[in-house]
Amino acid sequence: MALSTQPYKGARDFYPEDKRLQNYLFAVMRYTVMLYGYQEYDAPILEPMELYKAKTGDEIVNEQTYNFTDRGGREVVIRPEMTPTVSRMVAARRQELGYPLRWFSIPNLWRYERPQRGRLREHWQLNVDLFGEAGIEADHEMIQVADSILKAFGATTDMYKIRLNSRTLVNDLFDSYLGLNQEKTSALTKLLDKMHKLEQSKFEAALTDICGDSSDKAKELLSAKTLNDLPEQLQSHAGASKLKQLLDLLEQSGIRNAEFDISLMRGFDYYTDIVFEVFDVDPENNRSMFGGGRYDGLVGLFGVDPVPTVGFGMGDVTLANFLGSHNLLPQLRSEVDATILVLGDFYQQANSLAQNLRSSGLNISLDATDRKLDKKIKNVDKQNVRHVIFVGENEAQSGEFKLKDLETGQETTGSAEALSRVIKDNLS
Amino acid sequence: MALSTQPYKGARDFYPEDKRLQNYLFAVMRYTVMLYGYQEYDAPILEPMELYKAKTGDEIVNEQTYNFTDRGGREVVIRPEMTPTVSRMVAARRQELGYPLRWFSIPNLWRYERPQRGRLREHWQLNVDLFGEAGIEADHEMIQVADSILKAFGATTDMYKIRLNSRTLVNDLFDSYLGLNQEKTSALTKLLDKMHKLEQSKFEAALTDICGDSSDKAKELLSAKTLNDLPEQLQSHAGASKLKQLLDLLEQSGIRNAEFDISLMRGFDYYTDIVFEVFDVDPENNRSMFGGGRYDGLVGLFGVDPVPTVGFGMGDVTLANFLGSHNLLPQLRSEVDATILVLGDFYQQANSLAQNLRSSGLNISLDATDRKLDKKIKNVDKQNVRHVIFVGENEAQSGEFKLKDLETGQETTGSAEALSRVIKDNLS
After folding, report:
1. Could you report the per-residue pLDDT of A141-187, keeping only the tens digit for each?
2. Which chain A residue shows the shortest CA-CA distance from B363?
3. Cβ-Cβ contacts under 8 Å for B177 (sequence gap 6 or more)
4. At A136, phi and psi to the nearest 5?
5. Cβ contacts (< 8 Å) between B339 and chain A: which residues?
6. Which of residues 264-323 of A touch B (CB under 8 A)?
7. Which residues, at least 6 apart from B124, have a Cβ–Cβ distance to it below 8 Å?
8. Which of A91, B238, B348, B422 is disulfide-compatible with A302, CB 3.0–4.6 A?
9. Looking at this predicted complex, what is its ipTM?
10. Which of A273, A293, A315, A10 is nearest to B76 (CA)?
11. Is this prediction's pTM over 0.90?
12. Least CB–CB distance from A365: residue in B36, B69, B97
């Protein structure tokens, strides 16, 4: 029986046109975060199981990881996220590294879940982290970086909203204000995380179930649209003040589509203070795209002094959906600038022309097969290459070659140098 | 107990200085293969187990893969090599793709083996493949590409040798000429693969053991230094003629460090014709660096018409060892062009200066912590950043900022635009 040509379920093959798009997405991400002084790191895709048991949400470790025992008896995981890894790496060189430390990576991550729009088993995720800055400036910078990336892709502020919340504020709201115990707090957090996916009536029933006597207070809280809508006694809460300060800083730096959202939870256990999420406001695709926040506790889990940390992760699938639905995905052409067709026994001459053109920086492929000329030209077109150059007996003898621009139909005859100039002019 | 900060055994963490080097290696590879018209593809790191059972060497599948059963009961493998994957992808679109088809990828690959110099459990490997060209031109191009990559890294022809052999020639030598059956042929192939790692006496004993009566003939064969040293009756063998033709083409295109090597086997079962390997000639590091060859049979295993294919793989670890031992690894500096130190409550002004400088294309980081000035400067130096800019009360008021070049000690005071020019001049 013949082997299957399908990729592993929920993961993608990247044919050149797909890879070109991915390279474009990554290049824009890289360029932007590097403008902010972030430096790239990476790590093995396999990590010991313990790393995730420590602080990631239970659901991810127990139901969604790709884990197995290696031939040496070690329990290992194909990383489902990068945050535990980057914390491990910083902890390993806690004393040697200089702070503030700005790091980024674009790792592939694996989760075992039912593939659906925007959620695949393998995806890539830009991870941006700033270590060693405890002040609100770090939170501000992180949101500024996220915002700059979206703008670098051509997004405008009417396409997305940045929502902010504070873990410390929410904890006090649930605990002191609503009087919920730890178990109920955890249940409410999970409910709010799913809020936008639930029907209103189901959500309210679950809310009443969890909050009991405090249900009305909880509903009123959740109706708060701005920090000013919070109950009087909470206006001066440290978390509320920080959010106010952050919203002011964002406003001053030209970011006006940020707002307080009391229902914003973020799934992971490890966030300790301000959290944020970027939402697509397109009615067709109204959803959280990505987010992050402050997690000051992770590095310390490795037995070293803690390091204040703020970070976010931006997934490639969600991003591409966002750019696609807002018509922001570019048309990218083949990187091959010209293909030389060898007509007859002139491979050597064709190869030497190719080398000559390559030395001028052009990307040149070559067709030395004995297929018919029309088939060869059809193939150049199929591969979306703009120029074709013919090398046959006349050309081999004269050193003058015929170039055809398949886009305009224009033909030129000339030396390697002359053709190089024409191709570069056409492509510029 | 605190969590371990170690990466998984035999795999590497890439701190920014390591990642910078890897990015450099990949950039040179990418630039060079793209000059030859190759286009990048990629695929999931997990593949179904069947894919490797088909044609890869037994040892790799049975003893060296990372394989496990996923939560859905599928037997999967973390890819140990890319060739089966790329064959699968071409087979999936056999009819739609245009040929000759030039593809490359730089995947990470996993093998469970004892970590040692030049061999790690995770490594990256440039894979270059040319599909749909049956002629010797494809073999020639492949070697030309490999050679161009090494030269692009600054290698000169006295540092490495390119060794060539032919599978069809060797098969006939073992079968008709030495009279070995299939089992003995396979044993001899494995022995020759390990030849350079064995003591001469042990090698000869094993050779006698395998070849029996033909041992003297085998030894004589193995002493052949050029195609002309082969026995008369084999001079006109099709494999020998192809090798001669290839050596001529290489010579004509300026590649003079290629030679016939009858002992060159290449481990994988799937090679069908010419194979090649690039050897480091440094006496300290005398070893095979990478190689490839023709494998016309793989795409056809997926139930479609076969496609003639030539390819090679170049691993990052071996390459870096080669470049290191020949002093070809560059000193790469931090990508951060300047760090702004905020002195006092002037984050907003500092941030706006940073945004201004970034918009001119400079990579700017910012230190808004309340650490002491000397600590801040020490940190900039630690991160290998060349310029530091101070933003305190005077600067915030005047809009003129002080820049210090930590390399020369030179100081400049000026507007954002003036500083941007100075920094760019210094770095150019």
Report:
1. 999 999 999 999 999 999 999 999 999 999 888 888 889 998 898 88
2. A35
3. B217, B221, B231, B234
4. -65, -20
5. 37
6. 301-303
7. B22, B26, B106, B107, B108, B109, B315, B316
8. A91
9. 0.94
10. A10
11. yes
12. B36
